[in-house]
Amino acid sequence: MIEVRRLTSSITAALAAVAMAMTMAMAAQAQDSAARQRSIVVASTTSTDNSGLFGYILPIFEAETGIKVHVVAVGTGQALEIARNGDADVLLVHHKPSEERFVSGGFGVDRRDLMYNDFVIIGPKADPAGIDGMTDVVEAFKKIAAGRVPFASRGDDSGTHKVERQIWRQAGIDASVASGAWYWETGSGMGATLNTAVGMDAYSLSDRATWLSFRNKAELVILVQGDRRLFNQYGVIRVNPARHPHVKAAAAKAFVDWLTSEAGQKAIADFKVDGRQLFFPNAKGLGP
Amino acid sequence: MDEIYAAAAAAFGLILDLDPDLGEIVVLSLRVSLTAVALATAIGLPLGAAIALFRFPGRRTMAVVLNALMGLPPVVVGLIVYLMLSRAGPFGVFGLLYTPGAMIVAQCLLIAPIIAALTRQVVEDLWAEYEEQLRSLGAGPGRAMATLLRDGRFSLVTVVLAGFGRASAEVGAVMIVGGNIDHLTRVMTTAIALETSKGNLALALGLGFILMTLALGVNAAAFVIKDVAQRRQG
Fold it and tell me: Which residues of B touch A (CB under 8 A)?
């Protein structure tokens, strides 16, 4: 019996340690919470963060308003999920149908167009599929499939992946049957997928911003661009405070208002990599 | 090979410039991992020793489960902690997600089983050696536990370092629960993943060199402390 009592006491000690762990984590949190009073979390895509856009425009917004913006950069699918759970205050992604479903489902309010750029097909300079200079993206995909040349797909339900699947559908090709043969689904972000394409001399579909700011291009170049179907619209949505009362509604609205204001739109247009503009503001409904 | 030279150059450049962003990331990495190690040690040492010394039903099963938990995939721990700390989850009201606190909780869960399982082995081996002596002194498992943890403290330093190694090297859990937010939850491993995805392979590898140097520093410090203590003991 004594042993059982000792065992109980050491279990109690372990539980106390767990409680202590929680307390210390909470203390760490209290330390951070002062900084979080005037801060919001934005769930966004990797393209906006990796390209350096946020690094350029957020300091301008923060200087104007004193509101700190924390960006969680993930694929559009995961960003939607994070916002749906109420773990972000603002959602900034690029797949209009999903965004509209998000709003009609009651998870978000006030979706606004923010900016656009476009997708491009990149591939090896040698271009074994012979698509260089084509402007019909569906025909280009057909040639890639016919040639069975390697194609690296995001495979992660991101905005880019959704567009890519849409193009395969329009081409009448079920690329998934070739998965693992010439069609590789990396299940990763755009940058990781580009690294795969570089490593294997594969073709891929990328947003222009990530491609232009990507530093490991090696032998890959843009082969197909300019098709209207490659238009890439970004939208911004506030997480619905009626559904998630803890969201920082006022700060979130201030951020979205600023992004779509003249000052925010100018900041987006001013952001350049190697002298080239990556995102084109169109909050006022101006398209290409 | 050029990439590796460029990486070394990038690492030296960052260190020589005393890059403030790098400093912030290094400090946060150490703060998160060392806190997680401290908490996991507070949980793992008594738990492992108790399983080694007390006789109770299910003890063997517990030892096997603990050994298996050493292989917990970080990304699974990250997901579980995310679901727990999400606003939609049971602990959502604390608002811990996307804070260093969440990263500490995740790493602590990841390494507590490693420390507990290895401690169990160390203490069990010591018990086999000293059982007779301890019994003749009339020491029960409780006394034995205190004595053996004290006796095995030098081996247990290595156990704790194994936990630190796992915590400082993992990326899957902190990426999910921390969100890799610049100036808030970005640590060495998530910064390396980010730079890799941006195609900055040399910078990513350079950060890797710095992380390995940090780990070397922590291990060297532990070795020196252990050495001095052992010598003082005679």
Answer: 35, 39, 42-43, 46-47, 49-50, 54-56, 86-89, 92-102, 104-105, 108, 140-142, 145, 179-182, 184, 194, 196-201
**Identity of the residue in A6, A21, A194 whose CB atom sits nearest the CB atom of B142:** A6
Confidence of residue A34 (pLDDT cuts 50, 70, 90): very low
Write the CA distances from B164 to A20, A76, A276, B214, integer angstroms. Answer: 19, 34, 44, 11
- Count of alpha carbons within 13 angstroms of residue B94, beta-carbon side: 23
B181·A70 Cβ contact <8 A: yes
Give per-residue pLDDT as tens, A235-260: 999 999 999 999 999 999 999 999 99
CATH 1.10.10.10 fits A118-230, yes or no: no
What is the per-residue pLDDT across A40-79, written as a single tens digit (0 to 9) for each?
999 999 889 989 999 999 999 999 999 999 999 998 999 9
A236 and A109 in contact (C-beta within 8 Å)? no
A80 close to B (CB below 8 A):
no
Asked if A214 contacts A47 with a C-beta cutoff of 8 angstroms, the reply is no
How many Cβ pairs within 8 Å bridge chains A and B? 133
CA-nearest residue to A41 within chain B is: B98
Give me the numbers of helices (H) and strands (E) for chain A, helices first please.
11, 12
Q: What is the pLDDT of residues B163-190, one digit of tens each?
A: 999 999 999 999 999 999 999 999 999 9
Write down how long chain A is. 288
ipTM strictly over 0.90? Answer: no
Domain with CATH 3.40.190.10 in chain A: 39-117+232-281, 118-230
Which pLDDT tens digit goes with each residue over B131-142? 999 989 888 888
Cα–Cα distance for residue pair A111/A58, rounded to 1 Å: 20
Q: Does residue B89 carry a pLDDT above 60? A: yes
Choose the CATH number for A39-117+232-281 among 3.40.190.10, 1.10.10.10, 2.40.110.10, 1.10.3720.10.
3.40.190.10
Q: Is A37 on the interface with B (CB under 8 A)?
A: no
User: In chain B, what are the domains?
Assistant: 26-198 (1.10.3720.10)
Q: Which pLDDT value is given to residue B138?
A: 86
